[in-house]
TrEMBL record:
Keywords attached to this entry: Disulfide bond, Endoplasmic reticulum, Membrane, Mitochondrion, Transmembrane, Transmembrane helix
Domain CARD: 38-96
Organism annotation: Helopsaltes ochotensis
PROSITE patterns, A to Z: CARD (PS50209)
Protein's UniProt name: Caspase recruitment domain-containing protein 19
Gene (name only): Card19
Transmembrane segments: 120-138
CC annotations in GO: endoplasmic reticulum membrane; mitochondrial membrane
């Protein structure tokens, strides 16, 4: 959706009573006038800040003027609205339409959960089995005579491996090194 179309859709919501007060409208107009790129000229800003006209009329004229100018001007209006009235910006009807999920679109958060539904305990169990098998294969392989290194690694692992399991592994390594 273009910003002009969104602004047309939000026009009634923005111009209805007590949505925007004069101070916020003046801040938006000043921002559109002073911030680069300059959206409103000085004369246009003075016209839309005229206190003699009602707020509803000034705001309606401003929105129609921005729609005539193009999409970039409408986008800058939304940026100014977000900076000066964020709660109102979040309540805009066009924002609610953008927030509603498309039924044909894949929800990546849900898809990520579906792929990882086993949880961290399953991962740790699989990793432990793989590490145990790798250690067992490494220690039992007759071509490797590096049991001293394995003994040092297992000797420094009382935190990782329980004391009883460590003692069993140490006894096994001693038996392997004797043979």
């Amino acid at each position: 959706q273009s910003y002009c179309h969104r602004l047309q859709h939000d026009m009634y919501f923005l111009t209805s009573t007590s949505r925007l007060n004069e101070q916020v409208v003046d801040k938006i107009i000043l921002q559109l006038n002073r911030v680069y790129p300059q959206i409103l000229t000085n004369e246009e800003a003075e016209k839309f800040r005229n206190p003699k006209a009602s707020l509803h009329t000034r705001l309606s004229d401003l929105l129609k003027h921005l729609q005539k100018k193009g999409d970039r001007h409408c986008q800058e209006f939304y940026r100014a609205l977000q900076m000066n009235a964020e709660q109102l910006f979040n309540d805009l009807p066009s924002r609610k339409i953008l927030k509603t999920p498309d039924p044909t679109e894949i929800d990546t958060d849900k898809e990520q959960y579906m792929l990882n539904d086993r949880g961290p305990v399953f991962f740790l169990a699989c990793f432990s089995v793989a590490a145990g098998l790798a250690l067992f294969w490494y220690c039992c392989n007759s071509e490797t005579q590096v049991t001293g290194r394995a003994r040092r690694i297992l000797g420094f692992s009382p935190i990782i491996i329980g004391r009883h399991v460590r003692n069993i592994c140490m006894l096994y390594l001693e038996d392997v090194s004797r043979n």
